[in-house]
Amino acid sequence: MLPALVVERLPRLVLAIRCLARHDVEDHAVIMADELSGITAMVAEKFTNDKTAEGIVRAYYLTVGCVSLGLDHDLEPDEDDEAAMHYLIEQGAEHVFQTGFRMIRELAALPEDSLVGEYDQDPVYLQRRLKELFVDICYADPTQNWAGFERYATQHRQRKAVQAIVRAAGWLRRHHYAGPINDPDLNAEGVIAVAIISAIEGGGRIVARSSQKDFERLVKSVRKNKPDFEEGWAALMAQIPPQHQPVIAERIASYRTHCTVIQKIRSRTAMKTLFAEFENYAGSELEADYG
Q1: Do the Cβ atoms of 97 and 67 come closer than 8 Å?
Q2: Any alpha helices (H) in 75-147, and if so which ranges?
Q3: Which residue among 78, 167, 228, 265 has the highest number of C-beta atoms inside a 10 angstrom radius?
Q4: pLDDT digits 0-9 by tens, 27-78
Q5: Which is nearest to 87 in space by CA: 65, 68, 62?
Q6: Which residues on adjacent β-strands are paired with residue 116?
Q7: Strands 115-116 and 186-187
Q8: Within 13 Å and on the Cβ side, how many CA atoms surround 67?
Q9: Cα separation of 143 and 150, whole Å?
Q10: The CA-based dihedral angle spanning residues 153, 157, 160, 165, taken in that order and rounded to the nearest 10 degrees
Q11: Cβ distance 274 to 219 under 8 Å?
Q12: CB-based contacts of 160, cutoff 8 Å, min separation 6
């Protein structure tokens, strides 16, 4: 059995510098070295301990990764290391570093989870999240394989999907039948669950928050009137803006076959049991009933 081939995938900056070493471009090499030293010093001051050798090394690794991230972003997939070298010379390492860092900053601004709290906009928390992402994605040992760009792309795709869910839930909240819901804390999946389960009653009313009393009324209405669930979902979808329809449509498709509340609501399942399951879907988007 032949051994598996190990493909070397060093950081793009390292590969570009290797090309530079093979050319008679001494001035460019000096300029680039000076730029990279300045960037490393800045990173050490802001993100590591610039008073220790270990801090300087970490800053150097972060610089290598961030510049490599910028190169991978700006260059076409089929452009080789020579192209990366020329791009660095033409644009400058500082410009490419800023591209990579801007990517990290924009990634950090995207929601990581569909549970959004007031603290998520706290400047101290945002700065810590930025630093953690910067280290997680850009830390690149120049002698080791690095997959920072792929890790960035995966996280960006995942966070954009979460952002779509959060925005769809935000729209539902703003168009809640009883008036906009403005709480800073948001359980986006809970909002969408409440809207989809409530929509089976028909009529196209947008319900972004519920309570035990509201749910019991819904159950009694469905059991008495026997509405067509598909018509109810179609009426809901008719009101959703195009940019949010994919998220809602995907959840309807899932709930159609997997939501236990929808499966049992027409049966003789006890109201207490049904509501307990509804709580699992709605979570914190349920209001407490008093009196």
Answers
A1: yes
A2: 81-91, 93-109, 123-138
A3: 265
A4: 888 889 999 999 999 999 999 987 889 999 999 999 999 999 999 999 998 9
A5: 68
A6: 186
A7: antiparallel
A8: 35
A9: 18
A10: -160
A11: yes
A12: 110
Q: Which helix (H) or strand (E) holds 20?
A: helix 12-21
Backbone angles phi, psi at 187, to 5 degrees: -105, 90
**Is residue 187 classed as helix, strand or coil in its secondary structure?**
strand
> Per DSSP, which regions of 149-281 are E strands?
186-187, 210-211
Task: Choose among 147, 161, 167: nearest CA to 112.
Answer: 161
Angle ∠(214,262,231) on CA atoms, nearest 5: 90
**Helix, coil or strand: residue 211:** strand
Backbone angles phi, psi at 211, to 5 degrees: -150, 175
Report how far residue 49's alpha carbon sits from residue 42's, in angstroms, rounded to the nearest whole number: 11
How far apart, in Å, are the Cα atoms of 85 and each of 29, 57, 61, 147, 259? 10, 23, 19, 19, 54
Cα(215)–Cα(199) distance, integer angstroms:
12
Q: Which two tokens stand for residue 187?
A: 């359980």
d(CA 205, CA 187): 20
| DSSP character at residue 242 | G
pLDDT category at 289 given cuts 50, 70, 90 is: low
The Cα–Cα gap between 285 and 208 comes to 8
Q: Rg of the chain over CA atoms, in angstroms?
A: 26
pTM comes to: 0.89
CB 169 within 8 A of CB 283: no
Query: Tens of pLDDT along 154-168?
Result: 999 999 999 999 999
What gap in Å lies between CA 249 and CA 237, rounded to an integer?
A: 8
